[in-house]
Design goal:
alpha+beta; Alpha-D-Glucose-1,6-Bisphosphate, Chain A, domain 4; eight-stranded antiparallel sheet; 3 helices; globular; COQ10_START; START-like_dom_sf; Coenzyme Q-binding protein COQ10 START domain-containing protein; ORF3
Length: 171
């Protein structure tokens, strides 16, 4: 099951509260998907940040700098952009939150809710303040909503796909 919702500007993940939004345009996206793996498997796969390009469109590279910082390279239109994100909350098998420190202003929270022993509900809540006109137009055209929706579907495919030679493991 996949549910798409665009939230109003008052529904913001806690990670975004540290940003000064000023008068910029703002968008919040929430995506929910259920995956057929235990919560520990879903969380572990999500925290393999270097694997994000496997399921996130436009993400060229993610490098974990230290325990709380990630350097991202993403494709925006015809150009690549770099930014640093800080992990603001890390609760194993429950929640991961971040906010950007450089580059486009954004933040979010990924929550993991066990649905019995073998399934997990993964919820992505993302707040974005577009920096450029191109990003604003992309935002207004609904491209970001579709991208997040498709990224979550690809995450489901990655986490549920068994590795050859393993009786069950999704990696």
């Amino acid at each position: 099951m996949l549910i798409v919702a665009v939230l109003g500007p008052t529904s913001r993940p806690a990670a975004m509260d540290t940003h000064d939004r000023g008068t910029r345009a703002h968008m919040s996206i929430t995506e929910i998907i259920d995956v057929a793996v235990p919560v520990c498997e879903a969380y572990t796969q999500w925290t393999k940040f270097e694997s994000f390009p496997r399921f996130m469109e436009g993400v060229e590279r993610v490098e974990q700098v230290d325990a709380t910082h990630l350097d991202w390279t993403v494709k925006v239109g015809l150009t690549s952009r770099r930014f640093r994100a800080a992990i603001t909350t890390r609760e194993p098998d429950r929640c991961l939150a971040w906010r950007s420190e450089t580059g486009p202003h954004h933040a979010g929270t990924i929550t993991f809710e066990p649905l019995g022993d073998t399934h997990t509900r993964v919820t992505a809540e993302i707040d974005i303040d577009p920096d450029t006109f191109t990003e604003w137009v992309t935002d207004r055209a609904g491209v970001l909503n579709h991208r997040v929706k498709d990224d979550m579907k690809r995450f489901k495919d990655v986490v549920e796909r068994p590795v050859q030679g393993s009786p069950w493991s999704p990696r």
